[in-house]
Write a structure and sequence with these properties.
With 670 residues, this protein is of the alpha+beta class. It has 19 helices and 23 strands. Among the domains are: 71-198, Alpha-Beta Plaits (2-Layer Sandwich), CATH 3.30.70; 450-497 and 512-668, Alpha-Beta Barrel (TIM Barrel). Helix 3 (103-119) packs across helix 5 (162-183) and helix 18 crosses helix 19.
Length: 670
């Protein structure tokens, strides 16, 4: 039985899954747990129904779910019925597992779960079937409905506290996911852990919003209590409903689109070999691949957030790294302290933003909060009552309170964060969160001692050397009369990109019988369903073209007090003078950077075989250069002549990048 989503075929790929949804949470500021909070969460969810959609069957929803704190009394009661003796609260975990419908597939998955728990020196306490009522869900949802069981895990003696236990559970879950996938069972796609934690538990599925509380009978029990409830109604703008793609994920619920997700995933993979963590130790290696192919953008974001938190970052710290507010523009930076600006500038070299319109609610079971992208392109409003309740949602009206009890109503602003710490029993405002994190370490001093910018380095005038005539060079690089007349000339004359109103009715390069240059095979990615047009000219307040050149620091090196040097360019398109600076960077930075120029031309007489051999030689030379201590590689096609052709720069650059990633060297050079 499948998972409800087609396999990759033709132009369709599951990795393109996106969604635009409704989300919300309710919490008691003092952390008081009650069944009322769970009921209020389900009420918010039901009132967000219009933010989802249904299929041809009005009972077929895009997905909905709820995340709550671990209901200890309820779990203890249910475990006792099964003869399971649970240890103290915080010393056991309960994970909900989606299992294959077939007996053989289910037993194979459960066997892997049991073995890996044992190998990680934790205790398998037992299993519990999750009681459900599927009488009112769509037949299409029933056809792919997984078997649901909860596994109880006791904390092992090798785990010192609850936070360390959470890290170990993260490792266990990732190992299980990898091994189940490696089995390649016919129905292994149904296997999924919505949650595996000692702090939180998730109930979700391919359900209508108002069906979650009916489908999961546990949620109707009076002992199902929590101090917070995070809910989400999924709306698949251009995707398929699926049991495991329903939100919330383990730490977030997300409304929006992460437009940079493929680049983010690629960079997380590139960091693999260079990443070290004092907290995770040897367990870190067990997490890879961290982000599995074919996941939605929200699921990938959740995986990255889990890694940062497991590696030692606090939840708000990690969220500020992944979704930073606008800080680099002069006007924006005037609105924040030097410390906060330095915080963002320091972390910009550590982690690229997960960018796009987004409202993200997040929780680790102790704190709960929400943040908006720096453009503020998704709605999020909240209110606070005089009896210590906080409600945040995509819109007001999803949970009603008497007007006289409401002491504050407001909206989340672009780039801002709302945070409630249930242990401390207070709301922490945006300024306090960010200022405390910004002042925790001397980020400004670190930047001042480690940063070079091309603009501040001594200028080196480029020598205008033309190896061939202008016309010969244009022909060698595939320029056409159309490129020169309609693209180049307007840019030269007006200093701006040419624009036109007519559509392009030429065949896609991949389907064309005519020869095309490599660049014509690629189109710019953008979210065409829900995004307004945005560029760094019209939106300079919230966008930056600053580019970091060279090696990347260890993402999980929280205790490293000697940050590596960083080289900044004001934009990714370098002038000839700036290129000369890079060539002489050894001298300009007292050998803190070392640059090497690699030739990307080959003998024209050797044809395509010569190009293939040249690409292989380039990759080998790049790896050797990095191992020899060079941390800036310059790919040059200046050696073209009547006898030598250039490998297309796009191919040369991507081949070098992928080769260094495979060799575990990508973060050591730029």
């Amino acid at each position: 039985m499948g998972s409800g989503m087609p396999e990759q075929q033709g132009l369709y790929s599951p990795s393109n899954e996106r969604d635009a949804c409704g989300l919300g949470f309710v919490a008691h500021i003092k952390g008081n747990k009650s069944h009322l909070i769970v009921q209020q969460g389900l009420q918010i969810l039901a009132n967000l129904t219009h933010r989802g959609a249904t299929g041809y069957d009005p009972k077929l929803g895009d997905g909905a779910g709820i995340l709550i704190q671990m209901p200890d009394a309820f779990m203890r009661k249910e475990a006792t019925k099964l003869g399971i003796n649970l240890p103290a609260h915080g010393s056991y975990a309960c994970g909900t597992a989606f299992l294959p419908q077939t007996k053989n597939g289910r037993e194979a998955c459960e066997s892997i779960v049991a073995r890996i728990i044992h190998e990680e020196a934790q205790t398998l306490l037992g299993w519990r079937d999750v009681p459900r009522d599927n009488s009112n869900i769509a037949q299409a949802a029933k056809d792919v409905e997984p078997v649901m069981r909860q596994v109880f895990i006791g904390r092992g003696e090798n785990v010192e506290d609850q936070n360390a236990f959470e890290r170990k559970l993260f490792v266990i879950r990732k190992r299980i996911e990898h091994e189940v996938r490696a089995l390649k069972l016919d129905d292994s796609a149904q296997f999924y852990f919505p949650s595996l934690s000692s702090k939180t538990i998730i109930y979700k599925g391919m359900l209508l919003a108002n069906e979650v509380g009916v489908y999961y009978k546990d949620l109707q029990d009076e002992e199902m209590i929590s101090g917070l409830a995070l809910v989400h109604q999924r709306f698949s703008t251009n995707t398929f409903p699926k049991w495991d793609l329903a939100h919330p994920f383990r730490m977030i619920a997300h409304n929006g689109e992460i437009n940079t997700v493929q680049g983010n995933i690629n960079w997380m993979a590139a960091r693999h070999e260079s990443m070290r963590s004092a907290l995770m130790g040897e367990d870190l290696e067990k997490l890879w691949p961290l982000i599995i192919d074919g996941q939605s953008d929200s699921a990938a974001f959740d995986n990255a957030l889990e890694l940062l938190v497991a590696g030692g970052y606090s939840l708000p710290h990690a969220m500020m790294m992944l979704i930073p507010e606008a800080w680099s523009n002069e006007s924006a930076s005037k609105l924040m302290s030097e410390d906060r600006r330095a915080f963002y500038e320091y972390h910009a070299a550590l982690m690229e933003p997960w960018d796009g319109p987004a409202a993200v609610a997040f929780t680790d079971g102790t704190t709960i909060g929400a943040t908006l992208d720096r453009n503020g392109l998704r709605p999020a409003r909240y209110l606070i009552t005089d009896d210590d309740h906080v409600m945040m949602a995509s819109e007001m009206g999803v949970l009603t309170f008497p007007e006289e009890k409401i002491i504050k109503k407001w909206r989340l602003q672009p780039g801002k964060m709302l945070l409630i710490n249930l242990e401390e029993g207070r709301i922490i405002d945006d300024a306090e969160i960010k200022q405390s994190l910004a002042q925790a370490k001397p980020y400004k001093a670190w930047i001042d001692q480690s940063r070079y910018t091309l603009a501040d380095l001594p200028k080196i005038e480029a020598k205008q050397v033309m190896a061939a005539s202008l016309l010969d060079s244009q022909q060698a690089f595939g320029y056409s009369q159309e490129d020169i007349k309609f693209v180049m000339q307007p840019m030269i004359a007006n200093g701006e990109e040419a624009s036109g109103s007519m559509g392009n009715d030429s065949a896609l390069s991949v389907l064309s019988n005519k020869p095309k240059v490599l660049y014509h095979y690629f189109k710019q990615l953008f979210a065409q369903v829900t995004n307004p047009p945005i560029d760094p000219i019209r939106e300079e307040l919230v966008m930056s073209l600053v580019t970091f050149i060279g090696p990347k620091p260890n993402l999980l090196g929280l205790d490293e007090t000697n940050p590596p040097v960083r080289l900044e360019a004001s934009q990714p398109v370098l002038t000839l003078d700036e290129l000369e600076q890079l060539k002489a960077i050894d001298t300009l930075t007292k050998k803190q950077y070392r640059a090497l120029t690699l030739d990307i031309t080959y003998q024209a007489s050797q044809g395509k075989a010569g190009m293939a051999a040249a690409v292989e030689a380039l990759c080998s030379a790049a790896s050797k250069a990095v191992r020899d201590g060079f941390n800036i590689l310059i790919l040059s096609d200046r050696s073209i002549s009547k006898d030598r052709l250039a490998i297309p720069a796009l191919l040369a650059c991507s081949a070098t990048h992928q080769s260094l990633v495979r060799a575990g060297l990508r973060t050591s050079a730029g």
